[in-house]
Amino acid sequence: MTSVMWFRRDLRLADNPALVEACAEDGVLPLFVLDPRLWGPAGPSRRAHLAASLRSLDASLRRRKGLLHLRRGDPATEVPRAARAVGATRVHIAADHGPYGRQRDEMVEAALAESDVELVRTGSAYAVAPGRVTNQGGQPFKVFTPYARAWAEHGWRAPIDAPRGAIWLEADGAVDPPDPGPPSGIDLPEAGEDAALRRWRTFLAERVADYDDDRDRPGVDGTSRMSVHLKWGEIHPRTMLADLAALRSSGAATYRKELAWREFYADVLHHRPETAQEYLRPEFAAMEYDAPDGAFDAWRDGRTGFPIVDAGMRQLRATGWMHNRVRMIVASFLVKDLHVEWQHGARHFLRWLVDGDLASNQHGWQWVAGCGTDAAPYFRVFNPTSQGRKFDPDGRYVRRWVAELADLDGGVDPHDPDPDVRRRTGYPPPIVDHAEERREALRRWEQIRR
């Protein structure tokens, strides 16, 4: 019997249980379908990285005498068509737990069944699949800490090697891999499984020991930058967790917690798929919000007059990535200083982030906006000036990304330059008074609490 391995968010050969199952057949067709419903909205950064990752996966297969069969169109049409082309009786996948992914897979499963082809789900993009752990009442966790405890107690299988001795199949009807290239001016990270492993090993060797201290300092190269590789499954979190288990540093423990956050948000979205667009806490939909206007444009363009905010927004457009601490600061500024609903900011992030992950992005925004999984969050209004001073004390991050402030002398506070410095450098004045907008944000919150 022959099979199809339908790659999606698992663009790797190692530690891929679905691929191992597919390769146990008499022959396997490696398949990727460019789905217009995902390709179009992905944004230029993610499209460019995905295209590069597909080329890398194809190169890995060619070194093993195979090749990636690429089709473009509706998966419910293209997957059965590819299966028929090689006479496959099974299509193997890693389960997708996202709102669209689950719906798409059900449609593909029904279409395959018409030809007596089975859709086989093995594993997922997570160490612990969404929906796997629940509280003692059988209900999903709503708070991170008890979820993380149950997640760790549940555990996960050990990583597995890439399959050997597979019989790779070919079929007619493939299209050439896309090559959109990175958006103008954006410097994207190297894509693919080999690049992911190199970056991960470098982080373990050079930075994980200090991660607990450095991860919140955007001016320091203290994070792993692995989020994009996890997004496309160029590495599996099991591989990372196995490596971390051998370490005893506080940095390794903190990094493991960050992986748990990623899986927690996936679990929340699995149980509440509507929260990809709607409020996890519905009462916040009744809050008074302002429509996006010129201030929103200034936020998107990094021209708010608050240096740490502008540095983050400019970093996003220049690299397709933003430091996680700064993501929280700029999100708080949009929702609580400009009073714009979180969905507008989340949409902008998903357009430009190369690591844009629906669950982490949407629920990260909701956490900051006060309508998410935190127990008592809304009165947490980040002061962008004090946040900048705290996490970028020497101004290195601001000086790098806000060109107007790059050459300030040592006596000037880069997080609160005075009006004369702003006039001289061309850096804009603050578009709002933070103290006033904080009071206004809390006033609006009090209205929905009554």
List its traits.
450 residues, single chain, 5-stranded parallel beta sheet, alpha/beta, 3 domains, DNA Cyclobutane Dipyrimidine Photolyase, subunit A, domain 3
Helix content: 40-55%
| C-alpha termini separation | 65 Å
Fourth-level CATH superfamily of the largest domain: DNA Cyclobutane Dipyrimidine Photolyase, subunit A, domain 3
Name given to the CATH architecture of the largest domain:
Orthogonal Bundle
Named CATH topology of the largest domain: DNA Cyclobutane Dipyrimidine Photolyase, subunit A, domain 3
Order of helices and strands: EHEHHEHEHEHHHHHHHHHHHHHHH
Order of adjacent strands in the largest pleated sheet: 3-2-1-4-5
| CATH class placement of the largest domain | Mainly Alpha
Class per helix and strand makeup: alpha/beta
Structure, described:
- The protein is an alpha/beta fold and 450 residues long.
- The chain folds into three domains: 2-124, Rossmann fold (3-Layer(aba) Sandwich); 125-159 and 193-271, Serine Threonine Protein Phosphatase 5, Tetratricopeptide repeat (Alpha Horseshoe), CATH 1.25.40.80; 282-449, DNA Cyclobutane Dipyrimidine Photolyase, subunit A, domain 3 (Orthogonal Bundle).
- It is built from 20 helices and five strands.
- The protein has helices at 17-23, 36-39, 44-63, 75-86, 99-113, 144-154, 193-206, 211-214, 227-231, 237-245, 250-271, 294-301, 307-319, 324-337, 342-352, 358-369, 384-391, 396-401, 419-425, 434-449, and strands at residues 2-7, 27-34, 69-72, 88-95, 118-124.
- Strands 3-2-1-4-5 form a five-stranded parallel β-sheet, with helices on both faces.
- It is globular, with a radius of gyration of 23 Å.
- The model has no long low-confidence stretch (mean pLDDT 95).
